[in-house]
Specification:
Layout (H helix, E strand, L loop, with lengths): L7 H7 L5 H8 L6 E5 L5 H8 L3 E6 L2 H10 L4 E3 L12 E7 L8 H14 E10 L13 E6 L2 E7 L5 H8 L3 E8 L2 E7 L1
Parallel strand pairs: 1-2, 1-4, 2-3, 4-5
Antiparallel strand pairs: 5-9, 6-7, 8-9
């Protein structure tokens, strides 16, 4: 995932708007809630959190994406790994983890990421992953794929089947408050 340093500027140019599902989630939170954006990328969701009056912190493994995020939002940014979040238990009221969990190759890593989300979150966290059942993946025989960014820089994706995100959460005793499919993604609101 450190490969994002190589194409951070291009990533930023193609990822301008926050996802509707994240905006809806933010709208359900109490103003001034603390929120950790795990895998904050270029900061598009952090800027939205700021506009909603939330106290957000962004975390990403890519230093170049964090530099871009710093230009978009006036909030604390931390370089770090989603598998070892550098925060105490229940450090944040809420969290979001958008399009991160599907980048881990091993199921144990995906479980660890879900466990870390729950560990640092007091109330609820929003998680999204790519769905296998997308038209563009209809011919695929495997859930694990490599896709190149700009025809270079291969990135690993584990494509989730229906119900797999919920099973992953249950494996680490994370409760699912709500789950749904929206567009090409599965979403879950998880709680500790």
């Amino acid at each position: 995932m450190r490969d994002y340093d190589r194409f951070a500027e291009h990533f930023d140019a193609t990822r301008k708007n926050p996802w509707k599902e994240v905006i809806d989630y933010f709208g359900d939170l109490s103003e001034s809630s603390t929120v950790l954006d795990i895998g904050c990328g270029n900061g598009r969701h952090l800027a939205a959190a700021e506009k909603c009056g939330l106290n957000a912190v962004g975390l990403d493994i890519s230093k170049n994406l964090l530099k871009i995020a710093k230009r978009k939002a006036h909030i604390p940014l931390v370089i770090g790994d989603a598998l070892r979040l550098p925060f105490k238990d229940c450090a944040f009221d809420n969290s979001i983890c958008v399009a991160v969990v599907h980048h881990f190759k091993a199921e144990k890593e995906r479980e660890k990421c879900m466990d870390e989300i729950a560990r640092i979150t007091q109330k609820t966290g929003l998680v999204s992953v790519w769905a296998l059942e997308q038209e563009k993946f209809a011919a695929r025989k495997t859930q694990d794929i490599q896709l190149g960014w700009d025809k270079k820089h291969p990135r690993f994706y584990h494509l989730f089947r229906e119900g797999e995100l919920e099973n992953l959460a249950q494996n680490v005793r994370v409760k699912i408050e709500k789950s749904f499919r929206s567009g090409n993604n599965y979403w879950a609101v998880v709680e500790h």
